[in-house]
Design a protein that fits this description.
The structure holds four protein chains of four kinds.
Chain A: H1 2-24, H2 29-53, H3 59-68, H4 72-80
Helix pairs in contact in A: 1-2, 2-3
Chain B: H1 2-24, H2 28-48, H3 52-77, H4 81-85, H5 91-113, H6 123-133, H7 138-146, H8 148-166, H9 189-211, H10 219-235, H11 247-269, H12 282-306
Chain D: H1 2-29, H2 33-55, H3 62-92
Helix pairs in contact in D: 1-2, 2-3
Classes of the chains: A mainly alpha, B mainly alpha, C mainly alpha, D mainly alpha.
């Protein structure tokens, strides 16, 4: 069972990595915000699987902290970006 | 065991990939988001090398206050970005920097591959104190007893950083309140979140502090969580940022280091020296110091993100 | 290869990467980010030293771990101070550059820093 | 009994991983920000939810189970809020093509 759960954690991490490649590239900053969200839920899932799979129960508390603060980056994004800046595309983007 | 190796390898590749993105990405905002993602991944790394206390700190600080600070800074600096980015250094400097970076990395890699044998450790020394303290989490014991001087000085550093941030305010704003990012989007779901989340966050913060005596957790992690909750309430506009001239606020800021110092000085009179605890009261004293420290850390971290005052003092 | 060695090499690479970024990036905000990458690489090396020092029924030496915890919080406060300085600079001068010359120099001769 | 519980874990965790994969495929394949946002929520809601469901039978105590459920609920709250905030930002500034 431990082997299966750790393998599942590795799979989740690989999927998150693939998604990350796509959305970090943008083009809009809103896309990039999704990266934080994707990694938030993927990271929580991987931490929970690891906590049981590798018998480190305290990792659940780290997942709890991540879940509590998962929306924080997006809140900072939405409330600090002045009007017409959030979905705007980058002039400098390749 | 194979699954664990696969996980570690994937994680190492991902951490390096996101770090490369953070350093090389074009727009600053993309790099900042990369850095927030990088912090999250580091929390996973810390779990894998048996440092769950550090993983909790990284999760609480990295995805909370650091993310908010950097994202708002990137948004504010956006108008200046292109001009600053135009000043690319020449190829000679880039090459020299790359050579230096490779040299340093290779030296450190050699240290990792050919480490000192036997591995130096202070774990037995730290463990010797655990029994006397009645604190089950060795990291908490190190932070608050075995190496408590470091922790005390670190609190002073936090206060100094806050004073540095405040000192950047123009003279007429001295004693006034910071403004948290006017002009952004407000209302609706943000208000809902700022009403729902802080009560839960406070419970979780207290839990992390409490569990820190026996398992990973403690004052730093709890303080970072509480700071994030406070910031959320201020960002949503449910509560104004406090005026930095208030003596009550300043009392909370210095209470942590002051109580720590007082307990430390009492060590001269009662047990046997600075920052040593009388054995029968060690655990209650440590918890009392941690509670006050948590409040101070939360207030300092929150105000560091809020920045220097940007309005005149009322009255 | 053990997990400690793998992440130790990872930490070494992060230090190099962060150092490179800190030197070559013209934008101060990017320098701050790169410096944080450098710092986290150092923390990771500390973590690996802690992992190797596992003894007395602990998964790792708690002393380096505790130092990393204080280090993370101190790194945050230094970052906050640097960003406050940067925002003040941009609000006074209207630009966020470390160059002493007020006009941007695209020829790459570098600014005074 | 033990075998049955383990079976529940394996099925639910595998299903959760599948939904996370579906979310990733959506991110890679969908053409614009709003539909990518839609794909992302699948990974959040069902992927994490099923993984939590699968881990419940492995928990040692009731409090550990409650903590797992709390994590899922918090992630739901965060996901709902973030989706709203990001979607509004996209709508406000026009849809980048």
């Amino acid at each position: 069972m431990a082997e299966f759960l750790t393998a599942a954690a590795a799979f989740v991490l690989a999927m998150v990595a693939l998604g990350l490649v796509r959305i970090l590239r943008g083009p809009a900053n809103a896309d990039r915000m999704m990266a934080a969200q994707l990694l938030g839920s993927g990271g929580i899932a991987a931490l929970l699987l690891l906590a049981v799979g590798t018998e480190t129960p305290a990792a659940v508390d780290a997942a709890l902290t991540l879940a509590l603060l998962a929306a924080f980056a997006a809140v900072a994004f939405a409330s600090s970006v002045p009007r017409s800046g959030a979905g705007e595309r980058d002039a400098t983007d390749r | 065991m194979i699954a664990a190796h696969v996980f570690d390898a994937a994680l190492a590749v991902l951490v390096l990939g996101v770090a490369i993105w953070t350093v090389t990405a074009g727009p600053a905002f993309a790099a900042v988001i990369g850095f927030v993602a990088y912090g999250l991944l580091l929390a996973l790394v810390w779990v894998r090398i048996a440092a769950v206390d550090v993983a909790l700190t990284e999760a609480a600080v990295g995805s909370g206050v650091t993310g908010a600070l950097l994202i708002s800074a990137a948004a504010r600096l956006r108008p200046t970005e292109q001009r600053a980015a135009a000043e690319q250094p020449g190829p000679a400097l880039r090459f020299a920097a790359a050579a230096l970076a490779v040299l340093v990395a290779a030296g450190l890699a050699a240290l990792v591959l050919f480490p000192a044998e036997p591995a130096p450790t202070l774990a037995p020394a730290a463990a010797a104190h655990l029994q006397a303290l009645d604190v089950g989490n060795p990291v908490t014991a190190v932070l608050l007893a075995y190496r408590s001087l470091d922790t005390l000085l670190e609190k002073v550093v936090l206060l100094l950083a806050l004073m540095g941030v405040w000192s950047l305010a123009p003279d007429r704003f001295w004693g006034g309140a910071p403004k948290l990012w006017p002009g952004g989007q407000r209302g609706g779901e943000l208000t809902l979140l700022a009403r729902l989340l802080p009560p839960i966050g406070i419970v979780i913060g207290v839990y992390i502090l409490w569990v820190g005596a026996v398992a990973p957790g403690g004052a730093f992690q709890s303080g970072a969580i509480l700071a994030a909750m406070w910031l959320l309430v201020m960002i949503a506009g449910l509560q104004k940022a406090p005026e930095i001239g208030q003596w009550r606020l300043r009392l909370i800021l210095v209470a942590g280091p002051a109580v720590f110092l007082a307990v430390g000085l009492a060590g001269f009179a009662l047990p046997n020296g600075f920052l040593s605890y009388p054995e029968e009261y060690a655990k209650p004293l440590i918890i009392a110091v941690e509670v006050v420290l948590t409040l101070s850390i939360a207030a300092i971290l929150g105000l560091l993100v809020a920045g220097p005052p940007e309005s005149e003092r009322q009255r | 290869m053990t997990a400690a060695t793998l992440f130790g090499l990872c930490g070494a690479a992060l230090v190099g990467l962060g150092l490179f970024g800190t030197i070559v990036h013209p934008q101060p905000l990017r320098k701050i980010l790169a410096f944080n990458v450098l710092g986290s690489g150092v923390f990771l090396l500390f973590g690996v030293i802690a992992r190797r020092g596992a003894a007395a029924a602990m998964g790792g030496d708690p002393v380096p771990q505790a130092m990393v915890i204080t280090g993370i919080v101190v790194a945050f406060s230094a970052t906050a101070l640097a960003i406050a300085l940067l925002l003040r600079l941009s609000s006074i001068s209207g630009s966020a550059t470390l160059s002493t010359d007020t006009s941007a120099r695209p020829d790459g001769s570098g600014g005074g820093r | 009994m033990r075998v049955l519980l383990d079976l529940v874990t394996i099925i639910a965790v595998a299903a959760g991983a599948l939904f996370i994969m579906a979310g990733t495929v959506g991110l890679l394949r969908f053409p614009d920000s709003l539909s990518r946002l839609h794909a992302l929520t699948k990974a959040d809601n069902l992927g994490l939810g099923l993984i939590v469901l699968g881990l419940l039978p492995q928990s040692q105590s009731l409090s550990a189970m409650l903590k797992l459920v709390a994590i899922w609920l918090l992630a739901q709250l965060a996901g709902a809020t973030v989706t709203q905030l990001v979607a509004r930002a996209i709508r406000r500034d026009g849809q980048p093509v």
